[in-house]
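Input record, target 12 of the design panel.
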């Protein structure tokens, strides 16, 4: 089932360690098939280098394994909760990228001190409350704090990003880590200059309307 989506989700999962967003087997990417409503997600505890398209697990929005011989990610309940609550979301990425997770460990949002963050996120990357791992609690925190942006820091845990598809969600995860890294470096030098909210909104609107090839 869903061979093209399985191949894509496998490739994007393998990008996580290449982009420096995860260690060992932590982190995962999932994608929703619009036609069937089914979700493809990384299997639990499998090394990224060992992933193959046939390793990916197909699940229903209710969490039933539809196809696949491996157990789905332990984060599946949170992924599926987000998909059920946010029908516009077509892809989700979860990472423990170091600089963004450092902000999460302190319960801090990533401030908007870069035009690239204004473009991509339209505001600070918010930090949620602490949530237990394993059921839907993390998904509930993501939905509660996501707003109109594509990223949320999970206090004491890591990062969740969303997108219209899984590729967009991965881009948001890469950009979130980049913003956190530069914000951390800037704080080591002094007090970062935050961009006024009105200018953040203008830059974000322009980016969405004019950047790229449409």
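The sequence produced for target 12 reads:
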């Amino acid at each position: 089932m869903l061979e093209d989506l399985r191949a894509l989700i496998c490739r994007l999962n393998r990008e996580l360690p290449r982009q420096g967003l995860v260690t060992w087997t932590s982190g995962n990417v999932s994608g929703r098939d619009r036609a069937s409503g089914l979700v493809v997600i990384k299997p639990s505890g499998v090394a990224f280098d060992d992933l193959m398209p046939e390793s990916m697990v197909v699940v229903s929005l209710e969490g039933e394994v539809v196809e696949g011989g491996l157990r789905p990610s332990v984060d599946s309940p949170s992924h599926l909760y987000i998909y059920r609550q946010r029908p516009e979301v077509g892809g989700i990425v979860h990472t423990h990228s170091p600089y963004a997770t450092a902000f999460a460990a302190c319960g801090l949002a990533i401030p908007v001190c870069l035009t690239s963050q204004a473009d991509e996120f339209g505001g600070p990357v918010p930090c949620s409350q602490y949530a237990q791992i394993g059921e839907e609690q993390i998904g509930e925190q993501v939905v509660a704090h996501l707003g109109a942006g594509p990223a949320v820091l999970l206090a004491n845990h890591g990062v969740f990003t969303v997108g219209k598809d899984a590729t967009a969600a991965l881009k948001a995860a890469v950009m979130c880590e980049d913003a956190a890294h530069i914000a951390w470096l800037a704080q080591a030098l002094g007090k970062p200059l935050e961009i006024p909210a009105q200018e953040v909104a203008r830059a974000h609107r322009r980016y969405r309307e004019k950047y790229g090839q449409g």
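The mean pLDDT is 97.
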